Each structure stands twice: as structure tokens, then as C-alpha cells.
Amino acid sequence: MGRQLSIYKYSGALRAVVHPDESSGEICEIMGQDVFQMATSVPTPIFFEYGDYVTVNGRKFRLNTPPSPITKNAERDYEYKLTFESDIQQIGKVAFLFLDALGRFTESEFSLTGNAEIFLNLVVENLKRIYPGYGYVLGSVVEGETKTITFDSTNCLDALNIIAEQFETEWHVVGNRVSLYKRILGSAIVLKYGKDEGLFQLSIAPQTNANPITRVYGYGSNRNIGSNYRNGARRLRMAHGLYLEKNSGLEQGTGKYDIIEVTKIFEDVYPRRNGSVTSVTSPLVFSDSGMDFNLNTYRMSGVDAKIEFTSGQLSGNAFTNPVSGGYNPTTKTFTIEKNTKDETLDIPNELLKPAIGDTYVITGILMPNVYIENAEAELRQKVQDYLDASSGEVPTQLSVVCNPRYFARTGHTVSLGTVVSVQDIRLNINRQIRVIGYTRNWQYPTLYTLTLADSVKDKSLIKLINT
Questions:
Q1: What is the pTM of this model?
Q2: Which label site among 34, 61, 142, 350 has the fewest CB atoms less than 10 Å from its CB?
């Protein structure tokens, strides 16, 4: 009969004890599936319900969808195929909302400006709103530059994917810790052929069907450049040339590939000064002693500027800085207007206001030349980094069927992010590579199949190239 599994009702009472068949097991992927799939046959029907759960290898998996139809086999057995989901799928049930002026999570359409920690902390606060007893906390977070991301009626799981893509990293949820970083776990696992060694079967395939990129037309944002920028260019451009190129020229014998062009827009790159509040007079008035140019000199004719806060209580909000009386160059003092775009958003106020140390950027102005030059240099580096990552060989992915005897003998276990050593002399493979997905059999817990790659494939890049 094999190993048995207890299934519990949502209340914790026992629902049934079954013997899952050999097709049953965990399926886990970085930023993907995290489920326990179970197939079983029983002599009498079991009436499963939404919320039933199992505990597999120390982790809880819930039944979040109606069970598959019961199949009665030859008037004798009742067959079930069920998918139990980890708590990660619970995250997708929570709306990703922003605070209104009263500190309530009510705003479903909003733009937020900040670093990775600010975005991830908003995810955590939303999770705590629905699951206060679970104790969600902020885990490890990558350091990164300030970005502006717009969300529109998004749930927290989709928000995590958007944030990870924007910051070019990965999200992980382990227990109650929500993290944003590339998880790398060292191990002593060695997968190679031989008696009681770790390797049964190895296959290699491109990680995507996309071609390499050899030419990138790179553009920045349209903010803070004005109508006279580079003969009317609508977006920030690189200072020398519209594109960068690498590894092209196959027909001429000067490169590895044909010319393969893409256009890449970096919305977060624009001429800007990252300011910091050094004193506060009132919710609508603050100063920045480090301000190094006269804002009034660089205003667009008759156009109000915007102050966008990138940290603090007002992070993610933009406020009008009026042409008349909005900036005092002598005291380096800014006056902003309340954001009253609807009845629920009336800020700044005594509850939500600027504070010393809060950071901000100014938009809707013509920046001094030094900031334009810095932005163009930043754009060029962004384009070069993107090209370097995309112009080489298409990354490969290894699929490995492991020998269960090896894991039984060594006691090793596998987690997402585990780095293993793969050795195959005939295929000239001897490398350290990361586990980005695995299945673990229920009846034979030491039987793993692994998906190995250096990074999770960039879905947005594939879409860009294949459209």
C-alpha cells in the first residue's frame, strides 16, 4: 500500500487517511508552482471540501479549488486527483492596496516610488491586513535604486512578480518571511553517474526559445527633458548614437550572430536630483539645504512642478509645487499643495506629512545640463548591461532525474535555490548550478527530479523578442 497520508478538515479534524499512488508528490518552482499533487483510490467515497489540508515534509498544503470529479472504477474503487497548494497561493487572494489619507488600505490604482524595501514592505502590510495571525514579516531585500511602478487592481502575488521583474531579482516566501533577492544555498550534493551516485538521467535544453540580442535601441523616460531636448526627441537618449551593438555581423564575418534588434525603454532613467528633506515647517512646507540650483530658473513656462516623495510617509505620492510661491531660492524652501484628486485622498495632513530625512525627486521641470548628462550616461550603462546579458549564448537549463539511493545514503535534501555540482565527462559538464524547480515523490521521498539553471528565465524578455 505504501506510505499513508492524513487529510484534515479546515477545523483540524481528521477527514481521511489515504495511500497516495506513485504519481503523487511535491512540485516546487522559484516564483512558480508550490503544490502537492495527490492521486489515490479508495473503496468508499470521501467528500473533500475547500480548505482541507495535508502536511508534507513539514509544510502545509491546502485544497483551494473544488476536487476533481470522482471516478468510480469498475464499481469498486473511487479515484481522486487533488491539488493541494502552499501558503504562497494564499498570497494571490489578497488585493494589493495603498493607503488613503486616513491610513486605510483602499487605493487599488496607484503609482509608488521607492526602493525595493518600500515596495516589499507594502506587500507585507497588505498580507498582515488579511492574515493578522500569520505574522508575515519582511525578510531579505536587495539593495537597489529608486523606481516608480504603477499598479492597477493587482493582487499581492502578481505584485511580487512585478516588483521582482522591475528590480531584476526574485521573490521568495519561506514560512512567514517575504523576501526579494536571489536565493543561493550551498550544499555538498554531487550529481554524477555511477553506482549509488546521484545521477540517473540528464538532459540539456535552451532555457528559452528566444534568439540572442545583438543591437539595442535604448531610451529613457520623457520626464524632465522638455520640447527642445535633442531636436525634439520625446525621450531621453544616449549621448552618442541611438543604439549599442555586440556580437552582430555574422554575414560579414565579424560577429557570431545576425543583427537582431530590440527596443528597450528604461522608464526610471531621467534627469533628476535625489533630494532630502532637512527641515519641516508644516505639512505643506519643507526645506532642503543641499538643493544646488534655483528651481525657478528651470521651470517650464507656466507649468507647475511636481514633488514626488521616494521614502517616508508620503512615499509614492506626487504633489504640485506651484509656479507662484512654490520655491524660495534663498531659504531653499518648497511649498506643496494638497493632493485632493478625490474625496478620500487629502494629503499632506497632520498624520501623513514630510519628515526630516525623507527623499524626493522633482519632475515637470527642465533640469540643469549636468543632470541631463548624468542621466544620459546612466542610460548608456543600463543599455550596455542589458546588451551584455542578452547578446551571448542562450542560457541552458538542465533537467535531472536523481538516484534516490544517493539521497538515502547521504541524507541530503533539496530546496529551491540549492546549488549542486553536476558532473558528466562525456558531455564535458563539470559545474555548480542552482535548483530553480524540483519534484519530490511522495512514496519515495528521496526520489527527486530537478530543474537546474543559473537564473529563472526572464519572461518579459521572451515576450519582447517573440512578439
A1: 0.75
A2: 350
